[in-house]
Each structure stands twice: as structure tokens, then as C-alpha cells.
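ok, trying the design again with the full structure, not the truncated one.
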């Protein structure tokens, strides 16, 4: 079978293991963006996301026998590798890199969200601020809440898929997601309150 953009992940990986470099290239191009976004949304650091993405695919290549198709899709397996890489870095560094430190990332995040009307700089600025606020609020969540929010809300994994990836019960995913959403809402409300106070002081100055 010849590799093509329509070939499944699992078949591309089978072909890649047999020595088909084109198949691995197709697989990498298909999945690296999602793995990068996951690592970035978890860490807030562009450099960490780049390293984790590279290391995840290197781990796949380095131990090809560890992936078993019968246990789940290849995409979930890659998410699992990336998750372990990110958590290892967070555990080592004990600090999150603020999103603001990666100015290029804010623009990239904005570009990935819904489009705004052309030639509307005010709307674009507002959207940038909103996206940045959400990203920072997500980064401020404890890791076990953050990962379910990122996986289920931002990457649209099902509860069952997230539970398989995190090696926990579906009920645990549901409860963590509910708590993560609540914490996220609290942080965003607090942020809006602070911004409103700043704006009032600015207007009264």
C-alpha cells in the first residue's frame, strides 16, 4: 500500500516502521501541530512546546514496539508521550513560563481562533486580549485540572479518550473538568474585575 494523505495514522506508522520515510513525513505533518499546541497550552512556553513535539516523535521512533494499535489510536499514544514530557518539565522547573514571555505565541493563538472582520483593528485588539487572558488563566490551573481542560475543551477529546490517555476513570475526567471549568471562570472573572478597576482609574486620572 502506498502512503497518501487519506491513509490512517496506524497504517502510516506501519509503513514507516517498514522503512517508508514518506509515510512518516505524512504522519508527522498530520499530528505535530496538535502535539505542539497541547505542549504549549500546558506549559505556556514556545520553546518547551517545540522540544516536547520533537521528543515525542523521537520517542515514538526510538521505541516503536511500545505502541499497540489494539490499545487505542496512535494520536492518543502521542498525546500520552507529550503529556509525560510536559509534566516532567513542569516537575523539574517548578514554575510556569508566562505566556507573555512568548510574544509571538499570542499572535499565533489569535490566528488560530475564529476570524474577525477585516480592517477592524479594535476588534482584533480585543480578541488578542481575550485570547491571552484565557491562555494565562488556563496556565494558572493546577496541572491535573489544566490537562483535562486542554484535552477536552481545546483539543475536543471525548471523556473516554481523555480517561484512556490519563489512565484514570471517566468519572475522574468529568469531575476534574467540572472543577477546572469552575476555577477558570473564577480566574477570568477576577481578571475582568481588575481590568475594570484599572480602566476606571485611567479614566479618572
Amino acid at each position: 500500500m502506498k502512503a497518501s494523505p487519506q491513509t490512517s495514522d496506524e497504517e502510516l506508522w506501519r509503513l514507516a516502521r517498514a522503512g517508508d520515510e514518506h509515510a512518516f513525513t505524512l504522519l508527522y505533518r498530520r499530528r505535530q501541530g496538535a502535539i505542539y499546541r497541547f505542549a504549549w497550552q500546558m506549559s505556556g512556553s514556545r520553546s518547551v512546546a517545540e522540544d516536547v513535539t520533537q521528543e515525542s516523535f523521537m520517542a515514538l521512533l526510538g521505541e516503536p514496539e511500545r505502541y499497540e494499535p489494539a490499545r487505542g489510536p496512535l494520536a492518543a499514544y502521542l498525546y500520552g508521550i507529550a503529556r509525560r514530557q510536559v509534566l516532567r518539565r513542569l516537575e523539574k522547573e517548578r514554575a510556569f513560563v508566562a505566556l507573555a514571555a512568548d510574544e509571538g505565541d499570542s499572535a499565533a493563538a489569535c490566528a488560530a481562533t475564529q476570524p474577525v472582520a477585516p480592517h477592524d483593528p479594535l476588534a482584533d485588539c480585543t480578541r488578542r486580549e481575550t485570547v491571552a487572558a484565557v491562555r494565562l488563566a488556563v496556565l494558572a490551573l493546577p496541572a491535573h485540572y489544566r490537562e483535562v481542560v486542554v484535552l477536552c475543551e481545546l483539543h475536543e477529546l471525548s471523556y473516554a479518550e481523555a480517561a484512556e490517555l490519563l489512565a484514570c476513570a471517566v468519572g475522574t475526567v468529568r469531575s476534574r473538568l467540572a472543577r477546572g471549568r469552575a476555577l477558570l471562570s473564577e480566574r477570568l472573572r477576577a481578571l475582568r474585575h481588575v481590568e475594570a478597576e484599572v480602566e476606571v482609574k485611567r479614566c479618572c486620572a
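Keeping the full-length input from now on. DSSP finds nine helices and no strands in the chain.
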